[in-house]
Amino acid sequence: MKPKMLLFILAISVMLTGCRGKSATGTETANSSPAIASKSEQSPPSATSMPHDPSAQLDMSKLSDLFAFADGEGKKLITLARQPEEAHAAEKEMQLYNLAIGDNGNVLNIRYAKHQSRTELDNGRQSAHNFSNLEGDIYDVVDGVAKPDASYYLVSDEQFDVRSLIPLEEMEVQDIPADVAQAIVKVKGRAIERGWLLAKTDEGQQVSVVQFKRWGDQMLASLVLSDGDELTFMDYPAQYDANSTWRVDDQSELNSRMFSILFAARTSDGIALGFKWTGAEGENISILKQSGNRFEESGIVSGRYQSPI
Hints:
The chain folds into two domains: 12-33 and 168-305, no CATH class; 60-163, no CATH class. Strands 1-2-5-4-3-6 form a six-stranded antiparallel beta barrel. It is mainly beta. Residues 5-48 have low confidence and may be disordered. Helix content is 6%, strand content 36%. Residues 23-55 are annotated as: Disordered.
């Protein structure tokens, strides 16, 4: 499914209003996500500090579709509406969720607090500044601290075997290694316009995103997992639009700040990736599953409407 078509899943009850985003520059390599605001010097436990077992596998049939984001202090999370929209789940069910997985597989222990009702001050934006006005289920972060305003995937320890998480290196976004770029071009038969290395695992895999050169009105971007000589692609074809090709107001160009990897985990079929793609109007989140030399949508998707007011 194309990300532009996923908008919205995201909107829930809000009409999309395209707001001007920054033009992309093909030379950016730094990630501009906000720094962690903490009540202590302790960092959130990461995949490298969780129990790690190379033989453990994630059973994707057990996974839920519950996502959340953090408040401005990183002390609380509020859930995002699930799709298709459903009645509020029973408190007993919500209490089962005790783990929150964030960028690069960082795992936090959480505890259900309460259901929060919407207030008249809600402006429809699913952002930290509107946290106290939104309807959703509230969870307390019981150890460490969440990254303020960042998105998290909520699971129970029975649903998600955290030992299946593949540790990801903490790194700045970089240019794609030349040998990987050459291999991508060879497979696709298409020159790369711009691209970035987003993540590396401690097992040697690399996750990149590329925008290929335009062919007439045909545009193509791909998320690429490189594992030795093997490449796995999630393709995002689109029709050229000078203003909005993949996302509203993307100016037909991608940039490194749009993307991040939520987690990587082993499954019986390969690797599952939590993938975030941010645009001017908000953030799309999807969990992808490997099938041979390509990724497929798992059907577990969410998103946040964050368009500036």
